[in-house]
Amino acid sequence: MIETRDLWFSYGDREVLKGVNFKANRGKVTILLGRNGAGKTTLLMHLNGLLKPARGEVWIDGIKVKYDRKSLLEIRKKVGFVFQNPDDQIIAPTVWQDVVFGPKNAEMSDKFAKKAIKYLELEGYENRLCNSLSGGEKRRVVIAGILAMNPDYIIMDEPTAGLDGFGLRSVVEIIEELKEGGKTFVISTHDLDFAKAVGERFVYMDCGKIVHESDRIDLTIANRYGLRMGNVRGRLVVVPHNVEIPEIDTDFIAAMGIKAKERAFKEGLDVDIVDAVLERSILRAVEGHTVLLICSAEMMSVVEREAKKFPIFFEVLDKVSCGVSSNKIGRDDKGVEAIKHGASGACIH
Ligand SMILES: Nc1ncnc2c1ncn2[C@@H]1O[C@H](COP(=O)(O)OP(=O)(O)O)[C@@H](O)[C@H]1O
Ligand SMILES: [Mg+2]
Q1: Of the candidates 166, 199, 224, which is a domain's last residue?
Q2: How many beta carbons lie within 10 A of that of residue 178, not counting itself?
Q3: Angle made by CA atoms 37, 41, 46, in degrees to the nearest 5
Q4: What mean pLDDT is predicted for residues 334-348?
Q5: 231/61: higher pLDDT
Q6: Is the pTM of this model over 0.90?
Q7: Fewer CB within 10 Å, N- or C-terminus of the chain?
Q8: What are phi and psi of 249, to 5 degrees?
Q9: Hey, which of 18, 32, 41 would you mutate to test ligand 1's pocket, going by the most ligand atoms within 8 Å of its Cβ?
Q10: Of 224, 253, 268, which residue constitutes the final position of a domain?
Q11: Contact 14 CB / ligand 1 (< 6 Å)
């Protein structure tokens, strides 16, 4: 277990951590959530001795962290840290030199470096210059460099920042596999979808303090602490299963309830969201996407009640077929009209 006890830290006279008692259990993926400036990076940097507390203590596996050179070297073997920006972490010219930098420095063999290169599919890249790699490849090099030390704990600071969908999936897979292999993760993020995909314990930080902890993401709490809202307001467009399904420009289609699933199937629609449908649909809308949710008619009130709690555009399209023609609505003026007419639950906070 990694633990902080009444941890305080300031940059100059700016107090950034204010009595943080944080715990990350072995074998688990603990997610640190919070808006920009909450203090996540600063807290993480205490977990492997990159920063020294002004007050309070850090404990790793029941041993209090000390800050002499030898103790720090031991900690770095046990706790690896993946920086938010790989450019801040890559120090050697070539991939191989960078991956073995840690073990060499610690006078360890390169056994785990070789394994890590293979595991991260970097074979053939060994002599490539790091500065010629893409962002995703650099991130793999950094992770390989961490695995080369065979640490028990892996800290990741915003590992999905700047990744596209493909990169995101591979990060999720890496975390899941390494967790199966017994590694413990502490990961900071403000990406709720990613947090949900890998997290087992969620710790919310705000203004230098831990403000909430739970075993699942509570969207109301996440919302309260400003997670991934930005200025982008997504849309949740809900259609009961028994009316015409409009052809609107959506990022995701979801179906909630058996009747809605049957309807989607009949229409040949590619349903992207299949489990925890309502939660995930709202989550995606909160993140700025447009989601079309086909919903068994009797569940409409539940959807409406939940959706109204979030800062999203919420529309119910239940009068579509009388608003326009019996054909599907295209993305034209008529379609927009139909959306307006049907918007019985429009909710703009
Ligand atoms: N090196 C630094 N010097 C001065 N202030 C800093 C430094 N790093 C971070 N801060 C400030 O500390 C606060 C917490 O930052 P950080 O730990 O990076 O938060 P988060 O990772 O949650 O965005 C912010 O107000 C930030 O501006
Ligand atoms: Mg940060």
Answers
A1: 224
A2: 17
A3: 130
A4: 29
A5: 61
A6: no
A7: C
A8: -80, 100
A9: 41
A10: 224
A11: yes
Per-residue pLDDT of 179-213, as tens digits, reads: 999 999 999 998 887 888 899 999 999 999 999 99
Task: Please indicate whether residue 161, judged by its CB atom, sits closer than 6 Å to ligand 1.
Answer: no
Residue 291: name the closest of 331, 254, 344 by CA. 254
More confident residue, 233 or 67: 67
| 92 and 204 in a common domain | yes
CA distance 299 to 318: 13
Dist. CA 38–CA 101, nearest whole Å: 32
Yes or no: say if 203 and 186 are a contact pair by the CB < 8 Å rule. no
Residue 249 to residue 256: CA distance in whole angstroms: 19
Question: Does 348 reside within a domain?
Answer: no
Which residue type occupies 216?
R
Atom of ligand 1 nearest to the CA of 158: 21
Overall average pLDDT of the 215-242 stretch = 77
Instruction: Identify the sign of the CA torsion 52, 91, 30, 236.
Output: positive
Give the tens place of pLDDT for each residue, 298-318: 999 999 999 888 877 788 887
Give residue 313's pLDDT. 76
- Using alpha carbons only, what angle is made at residue 71 by residues 158 and 107, rounded to the nearest 5 degrees? 85
Structural domain of residue 300, as residue ranges?
235-342
Ligand 1, residue 45: give the atom nearest the CA: 17
